[in-house]
Amino acid sequence: MRVLSGIQPSGSLHLGNYFGMMKKMIEYQENEELFCFIANYHAMTSVSDGKALSQGTLEAAANFLALGMDPEKSIFWVQSDLPEVQELTWVLSNFTPMGLLERCHSYKDKVAQGISPNHGLFAYPVLMTADILLFQSEKVPVGKDQKQHLEVARDIAIKYNNEYGDVFTVPEPEIDDNVATIPGLDGRKMSKSYGNAIDLFQPEKQLRKQIMRIVTDPTPVEEAKNPDTCNIYQIYRLFLDKEQLADLRKRYETPGLRYGDVKQELFETIRDFFAPFAERRDELLADKDGLRKILETGRDKARYHANKTMRKVRKKGGLIY
Ligand code: ADP
Ligand code: TRP
Fold first, then answer.
1. Which one of 49, 126, 148, 172 has the fewest CB atoms closer than 10 angstroms to its CB?
2. pTM (2 decimals)?
3. Whose CA is nearest to atom 1 of ligand 1?
4. So what CATH class is 204-282?
5. Distance, CA 22 to ligand 2 centroid (Å)?
6. Domain 2-181+287-316, architecture per CATH
């Protein structure tokens, strides 16, 4: 099965990103044909600082590679290294009814927030469609917020195929409802925009500070506590196996547990869990040319597949004469 997904380069990474999405992608490479890219063209709809975008792109690549993306087992590249995707975007624009884009929630939400929309924001789902169709992707794992964009991609693929024959694989979304929303420090969904995130890669002192900020209830030490409503427990459980989880539950249910102690343990657990990844990330970022080489190899592998599709598209569309 050919699986494809793109991730916008977005500065720091938090536990929600890792447990909600990256871990799953990294697991896919074992048994599926995985295509994974850094969606830096998409990021241009919200980042207008070139330096920040190029630095963010390298960091996003290093993050993924450090966490286990294996460029031998997968095809891993940076979106803008294959400008072919822009050519396909233009072709597909001619199969995209305005109404289809006008109905997109993510676009409408941004307009409702008062953002003055430009064409990039409006055409965002067409570029995303091109990302998917260029590689004849079968399965596209995305979060719930991207579900409608997948429907757009399917609509466009079907419209094009009706006109020109079966050129594109019609992709299936994979929206995993089992991937629970990872809660943040205050119990709401962990998100950069809520300021309630625990970052993966940061100095130890800062990590400890973040964890100490986890919001807890005022149950006194000498009373039993409820793990199911405790924000520390909900985060801690991501790192524990069944047995460890049962042990922790028992401690909650026994009077005497101090939230401060559990926070300290959680801090040490997170620190130790990500320490080897952080080390690898630093190594990758210390050798930017080496990192670029890895991405070039990914680009070349991806280009082979992109060319296969684009040859057909150019021929069908009459762009070869
Ligand atoms: P943020 O909300 O911090 O801006 P992004 O929207 O950049 O996060 O998230 C990138 C991906 O990480 C999303 O597609 C989603 O799959 C995953 N993700 C982010 N936050 C969470 C969370 N709290 N729980 C589960 N998955 C998450
Ligand atoms: N729009 C997606 C997001 O913000 C990222 C993305 C770009 C993507 N192109 C894609 C995801 C193609 C899946 C397939 O999360």
1. 49
2. 0.90
3. 191
4. mainly alpha
5. 13
6. 3-Layer(aba) Sandwich (3.40)
